[in-house]
Design brief:
The protein starts with a helix and ends with a strand. Helices cover about 10% and strands about 45% of the residues. β2 and β3 form a beta hairpin. It has a 6-stranded mixed β-sheet with strand order 1-4-10-9-6-7, with no helix packed on it. Strands 3-2-5-8 form a 4-stranded mixed β-sheet, with no helix packed on it. The protein has about 130 residues and is mainly β. The protein is globular and about 35 Å long. It has a single domain, classed as Cupredoxins -  blue copper proteins (Immunoglobulin-like, Sandwich), CATH 2.60.40.420. It comes from Svornostia abyssi.
């Protein structure tokens, strides 16, 4: 097979596999988002919840300190994310909690300690009507 055709076959295969790579959102049950924090991930990475009060319980299974913040996403590159709620800092092998009142929309989940967010410690929270 000519090299050009081989590249085409690889690209088509990747395009067909890409839609299956995403994680299905996990619903926050009973108004509580339960997450695990580790270097450098938030699990689950995609969460759905109903509008209103959301309790956040985060377990730090990592070796470093972590937190879990809920942010309004940037409107453009010049505007920073704005934290609207979250948890205090969790020491390794500890659990922390917090709460936030949310309106429908899409929010960003992130660890705001040092550069953890840049290293992949972020997620997405979709809030729907009650």
């Amino acid at each position: 097979m000519p090299r050009r055709h081989a590249h085409f076959v690889v690209l088509v295969a990747l395009a067909l596999l890409a839609p299956g790579c995403g994680e299905d959102p996990v619903p926050a049950s009973d108004g509580t988002l339960r997450a695990t924090l580790d270097e450098y991930a938030i699990t689950p990475q995609k969460v759905t919840a109903r509008a209103g009060e959301l309790r956040i319980v985060a377990r730090n299974d990592g070796r470093l300190n972590h937190n879990l913040r809920v942010e309004l996403p940037r409107q453009d590159a010049a505007t920073p994310e704005r934290v609207v709620g979250g948890t205090p800092t969790a020491q390794p092998n500890s659990t922390v909690s917090g709460s936030v009142r949310l309106s429908p929309g899409t929010y960003r989940l992130a660890c705001t300690i040092a550069n953890h967010d840049d290293l992949g410690m972020w997620g997405e929270l979709t809030v729907t009507e009650r």
